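Folding problem:
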Amino acid sequence: MSDPKGRSELENRLRRAGEYRRREPFDLLTMGECSFGIDLSNDVMSEYEERELEDIAGHVNEAGGILVEYSGVGCVRRLLEVVLPQLDGLLDTNHGELVPYPEVLSRFKSEPNWDWSVPSSQ
């Protein structure tokens, strides 16, 4: 999720990250051996409850979302390392965390095996 300017830049970066084809219901991005379903419609924002939207608004003004379907964290990690640098926004891991983009990238560096789909043992 990003503000309108960041979201627009993120869309552009996604379209340039590999072979991008418009399809229904999701566009298809292929990057090496990895494939992603991309939904640029912003419909994903309707899936959040009011209190979640309030929390998001505390971090991102006028948040707009892009949905990325992926088969594994390894693939989406490579994609995010290409498209997130110098952008502000939040990554919803779909596992209970909203992580600021800069923190996502720093965690990739400090925790090479970070997989947000695996609960941490804290």
In short: The mean pLDDT is 93. Strands lie at 19-21, 27-31, 34-39, 67-69, 90-92, 98-100.
